[in-house]
Amino acid sequence: METIRLTTAQAIVKWLTAQRTTLADGTEAPMFPGVYAIFGHGNVTCLGHALEEASDELPTWRGQNEQGMALAAVAYNKAVKARQVMVATSSIGPGATNMVTAAGVASSNRLPLLLISGDAFNTRIPDPVLQQVENFGQPSVTVNDAFKPVCKFWDRITHPAQIVQSLPAALTTMLDPATRGPAFIGLPQDVQAMAYDFPARIFEPVVHEIPRPRADSSELVAAAEAIKAARKPLIIAGGGVHYSVAEATLKKFAVQHGIPVVETVAGKSSLLGDDESYVGPIGVTGCEAANNLATEADVILAVGCRLQDFTTGSWTLFKNEDTTIVGVNTTRFDAIKHRSLPVVGDARETLRELGDLLGDWATAQQWRQRASEEKAGFRGYLDLIGLPQGDGPTDDEGNPVMTYAQVVRTVNDQAEAGDVCLAAAGGFPGEVNNGWWNKGVGTFDCEYGYSCMGYEISGGWGAAMAYQSGGGAERPGELYVFVGDGSYLMMNSDLYSSVLSGHKMTVIVCDNGGFAVINRLQTNMGGKPFNNLLADCRLAGDVTEVDFAGHARSMGCDGETVSSLDDLSAALGRARAADRTYVIAMKVDAYSWTEGGTFWQVGVPEVSNLAPVLDARAEQDKGYTDQRVGW
């Protein structure tokens, strides 16, 4: 048997470069298109050396913060529809634990991500080493064990030969739609350096195909019978529609059978905003149009959904007690939620097979007309709140203040079919989920599976890299990143990364004076404004204003501050013409929000000295009566 003598680190890198994938358009590309890295004593001398040797085949990109670079990897992997896997590597200790949050994002969103971290010495002779956190009762435990709850695959390599089995197992877990999620590999410093005679055959190129599991015939028949018996069926399109590249199939299925389509946050842009079957976003960050239909629907066809509380209104949205949920998912765990009829299979193939079973069956014209009327009402509401109004919010001097809805509408009006909208936690999910009218399929990324503040700018860097690198997610248009002042202050250093690496994005910074959406929740639940808006925090004096555009310029971006929608519109033109990341900052009202969501269960005190809190608790208790429990 032919062997190659390499260190463990060299063998890992050589194996990574040998893996190939088939992209959504059918072309072949590297499975691992690059590595985001911040080096320290736990990974620089061995893994860093191996990456330098392979830098032409496996590009290494320097991050500014381990969490940020791993979030960039998540966004990259999402942009290529989980068909490639960016790698993130850190040293031991704080570098590693910084990436735990990104692992949580990938796991919640069912996305692949390969994390490789240095670890303490396998021999334990030099223990405790720099940055090692000792566990008195379990000496084999290090901070890398913190990845176990948020990764779908976890391994610590204690001998070079183990990678022969561990790496393929990790990749299989990341690619299989039933198990897809992040994988973690811990590399003790001494094991990284060990040499071993590896079988040459493990470094032979392999082209991997994403499997498309087919549903069981009995599950398909049961689902088809349930749909045929429905008078008011509704499709919920989730993120699985994108990862299965099922958008065109979904559109054909919905039109052929006359079933209205609503979208989750992850499923948004499965259809175009003007498609005849599309109604709007569903749930807590959704619109009245979609939620009204969901309230009446007798069959819910949930395609590629996790059915989290923001989609289901904490399971109060489906008020028809005769409602049947048909769960189409590659993961049985998701497909059976709340006694759903499971159809465990790939979204694209399942919709095709369901369509064949349904034949010429279609819903009654009255239901389709009802959906069309609801959608028209939703569009009218967006026009009302998105366009300038004479009676809008003003500042203390009486000057008009922009709202989130107006900002989103202004950008959306200028957007072209190839432009992409990216956002994350805070106030923006509800605003872009409603106000961004899809002009292109697969042009929306709002991280709301883990609701991770800080994803926006780092994720924008990763997505821009995917779109501009020719890695199967090419788009000729702009990448618009919407971020609030809170998330900007939490994580912004990848603005610098985008400038260094030449991956442009346009960042819209809306400053509403703090964590305004949480202030909204706090006060809506009867509490007093406290520690969310900067004005309500413990301060040494007046609130210090941040020059966000100036700060971005200090990191090499182009940037400006605007004070009106006309100024914003003009700035967007300059941003499109710019050759580097462009930051546009503005003040927005902290109290104006897009409405139309549904009930959301949160913890409200049963005992309080504030009457509004007790009133809010009473309203919460009323909401529980609609919850779907054991239906």
What do you see in this structure?
A 6-stranded parallel beta sheet has the order 5-4-6-7-9-8, sandwiched between helices. It contains 24 helices and 23 strands. The longest helix has 22 residues, at 365-386. Helices cover 37% and strands 16% of the residues. The protein has 3 domains: 3-208, 3-Layer(aba) Sandwich (Rossmann fold), CATH 3.40.50; 217-377, 3-Layer(aba) Sandwich (Rossmann fold), CATH 3.40.50.1220; 402-587, Rossmann fold (3-Layer(aba) Sandwich), CATH 3.40.50.970. It starts with a strand and ends in a 7-residue tail after the last helix. By secondary structure, the chain is an alpha/beta fold.
Low-confidence stretches: none
Mean pLDDT: 96
Strand order, largest beta sheet? 5-4-6-7-9-8
**CATH class bucket of the largest domain:** Alpha Beta
Classify the secondary structure makeup into a structural class: alpha/beta
Percentage of β-strand residues? 15-25%
**Rough outline:** globular
Number of strands: 23
Give the radius of gyration: 25 Å
Helix content: 25-40%
What's the CATH topology name of the largest domain? Rossmann fold
CATH superfamily of the largest domain: Thiamin diphosphate (ThDP)-binding fold, Pyr/PP domains
The second-level CATH architecture of the largest domain is: 3-Layer(aba) Sandwich
Number of domains as seen in the coordinates: 3
What is the straight-line distance between the termini?
A: 60 Å
Work out the helix count.
24
The largest sheet, given as strand count, sense and whether it forms a barrel, is: 6 strands, parallel
